Amino acid sequence: MNASEPVPSAESLLRAAAPHELVATARRLLSDHVGAEEVTLLLADYALSVLQPVTHLPYTGDPVAAHDGPVGRAFISQTPVVEVPDGSAHAHVVHLPLTVRGDRLGVLSVRLSSGASDPATVLRLTDFATALAHEVTTAGRDTDLYLQARRTRRLTLAAEMQWQLLPGRGCARQEYVIGAHLEPAYTVGGDNFDWSTDADHLTLTVTDGMGQGIDASLLTSLAVGALRNARRAGIGLADQACLADQALFAQYGGKSYASTLLLRFDLDTGVVRAVDAGSPQLYRQRDDTVERIELEAQLPLGMFEETLYEEQTFHVQPGDRLIVVSSGVHGARAADGGSFGQRALRQTLSATRRESPHEAARAVVSGLIEHFGSRELAADAAVVCLDWSGRNNGA
Fold it and tell me: What is the per-residue pLDDT across 180-236, written as a single tens digit (0 to 9) for each?
């Protein structure tokens, strides 16, 4: 079979592979069917700073910058990049984004003879990379190897719990694109974001559990679990907050609580129902204007027994961008005493308006680190960025 023919049943062959053999299976398939000379799987680390080449799992090769060079360009742009290596007139390397429903995992790099990297082959390789990304995600249920390969150093126990609690770092549908970021990635304790979508709605929450380390992680895990339990029972947004509030108060008696912002989007109309239970702040970018959406501040979850919560509503329009930041972002202070949320946050949002939601969220955290003056932040920082398209270009 030559390179112009499609790879037969690549998805089924990947699905049949043992979880730890996905990389070897991908190499064999691409060698057999498109003449690949070399195949490398690179996974983004938790801080989204480097891409790690997976060699003999769980070990990795030398990391590659996630935002520079041909590999970084493929990761950021989410499009294939064809590289002609120096001194290699007869070979091309095709770098292909590994993405699952908007969640960026890494890059698949495939070395081909120069004549084999035609547009049709690149398109087939793109489909193959997507299939491989889905299998890497599925394999994570059965093996730790790919999670181990993502880390440049050991996670704290609290961070391990928080990353396992997250739905991912991105999500995309026709109506919206979400990008999110957490820092400090390897020691985060209490910050969390969560989302769930169905045919007509998107529910998004950002939670900031008080405290640090394992205590904050346990508190946030209970809050997120209670919110999910209520949501999956088909309960409305305000009642989700009420039930989670009761669960936290029953466990902690008001001594510990979690600040949470709950949002529920109607995908048809752009109506957003909101419950502001604490400190996460919400900003909207419409055209070139940045404004904070002022919601009625209600009590954090678990502060008092049987707190009643009320919903508010606002609208989003096609082209709007929403940004949610935890208190560790908007409240972070520099050495001169100024908070990041006063001016620097708005400046960063304005400067990244044309970037993807993933890169905008990362840029906010990078700006925060620069403002604070150290990667050793005083508090956890969570940023969620959502670009809204809506349906049928309607409101």
Answer: 999 999 999 999 999 999 999 999 999 999 999 999 999 999 999 999 999 999 999
HSE of 220, CA atoms in CB hemisphere, 13 A: 32
Closest CA to 16 of 138, 125, 104: 138
Can you state the angle between helices 119-139 and 22-34, rounded to 10 degrees? 160
Pairwise CA distance, residues 353 & 289, whole Å: 10
Q: Rounded distance, CA 173 to CA 201, Å?
A: 11
For residues 241-264, b (16+ Cβ closer than 10 Å) or e, as one string?
bbbbbbbbbeebeeebbbbbbbbb
- Cα separation of the two ends of the chain: 50
The CA distances from residue 384 to 195, 202, 281, 359, in Å, are: 11, 14, 11, 11
Other CB atoms within 10 A of residue 77 CB: 12
Rounded CA-CA distance 381/394 in Å is 34
Ordered alpha helix ranges (H), the chain: 10-16, 22-34, 69-77, 119-139, 145-150, 157-165, 213-232, 237-252, 327-330, 344-351, 357-372
CA distances from 137 to 76, 77, 314 (A): 19, 21, 35
